[in-house]
Amino acid sequence: MGERPVRNPLGIALKSNRATMADVAKLAGVSRQLVGFVFQGKSGYSPEAAARVHKAAKQLGYRPNLAAQSLRRDTTKIIGVVFDPRESSPLEIIQSLYKVSAKNGYEVILSAIADDRDEDEAIHELIGYRCEGLILIASRLPTEKLTLLASEIPFISVGRQLDSSIADSVCSDGAKGLELVVDCLASKGHTDIAYINATSMLHSEVRLSGFLNATLRHGLPQQVIEIEGDYTEESGAIAADILLKKDLMPTAVACSNDQQALGLISALRVAGISVPSQISVAGYDDSRVAGFSFLSLTTVHQDAEELAEMALNRLIERISDQSLVPSVLLSPVSLVMRKSVVAKSL
């Protein structure tokens, strides 16, 4: 038996997922050429016509062949995004990138890092798709490789602050974020505050500097727990083990990110230490898990949509003019108070 046809509202007989540009044009009541203009990001049509085209394409299940389109023109209007799905913050940024890129007439292609697929592979896959530029979220590539990459394709680093001689960076203001955390804890009467520093993270010194500056300003001891790991739940669990072995634990802990805070709180609770009545804990990122009732984590909020917009706008500028001097763009941060931080008990 043959494949059963699907009929759309105009009675066009289609095989599943085989709609054509002509079918979209007929359903939208426009020319085939106009449909092509819409999907290629060209001008010469009204917003209403574009909306009809997109609605018809969605009804019919039509998807433009981006690879074929890119081969027919000098510019592809495609941005590649490299990320590690094992980290929490990239997911919010990626969601915002889709929205922001659509407003600017760009498509987004994702390339994920995995246990058997390193960042180099993820990047070169996107270059093979003829992406005009790349967004690297929390890149861990060494400086030498990033310098070579900058000579090959425009890119911007999100979440990791690079030396401005290499490439553009867009980050939340990590130093300011940790200052806000320390200010909050100090205002709650905490004078013994520890910070968990994941030393293998290539930009860890930025957040560490914020902690050190704030504790110095408040005249507090600078207690830093160095973890040879990254911003994961495991690093938080390791830090908990270190704290539990101390004769006297601090009354508050600032973590490098929310995942680390989750690992710390989980390990402390297993050991019978109550958070926040015995020890207050704060994170960074304001990830989705931070707001869950079982965690209710006080944390530093970074605006994912603002980071995405800043990154994409700067990358588009870079694509148009590669002689631009690289810069570091910082997104403002704020503190979100939840139940994991309370006043120091007397």
Commentary on this structure:
The protein has 346 residues and is α/β, with parallel strands linked by helices. Helix content is 41%, strand content 18%. It is built from 12 helices and 14 strands. The chain has helices spanning 21-28, 32-40, 47-60, 66-71, 89-103, 119-128, 143-152, 174-187, 204-218, 233-244, 258-270, 304-320; strands at 6-7, 13-14, 78-83, 107-112, 133-137, 155-158, 168-172, 193-198, 223-227, 252-254, 280-285, 298-302, 328-331, 333-336. It has a 6-stranded parallel sheet with strand order 4-3-5-6-7-13. Helix 1 packs across helix 3 (47-60), helix 5 crosses helix 12 and helix 10 packs across helix 11. The chain is elongated, with a radius of gyration of 24 Å.
CATH superfamily annotation of the largest domain? Response regulator
Number of H- or I-type helical stretches = 12
CATH-derived topology of the largest domain: Rossmann fold
Count of extended strands: 14
CATH classification class of the largest domain = Alpha Beta
* Main sheet attributes: strand count, strand direction, barrel closure: 6 strands, parallel
Q: Whole-Å distance between the termini?
A: 79 Å
Order of helices and strands: EEHHHHEHEHEHEEHEHEHEHEEHEE
Total number of distinct structural domains: 3
CATH architecture of the largest domain: 3-Layer(aba) Sandwich
| Contiguous runs where pLDDT drops below 50 for at least 5 residues | 1-17
Round the mean pLDDT to the nearest integer and report it.
88
Order of neighbouring strands in the sheet with most strands? 4-3-5-6-7-13
Tell me the β content: 15-25%
- Helix % is 40-55%
Taken from the alpha-carbon principal axes, the silhouette is elongated
The Cα radius of gyration reads 24 Å
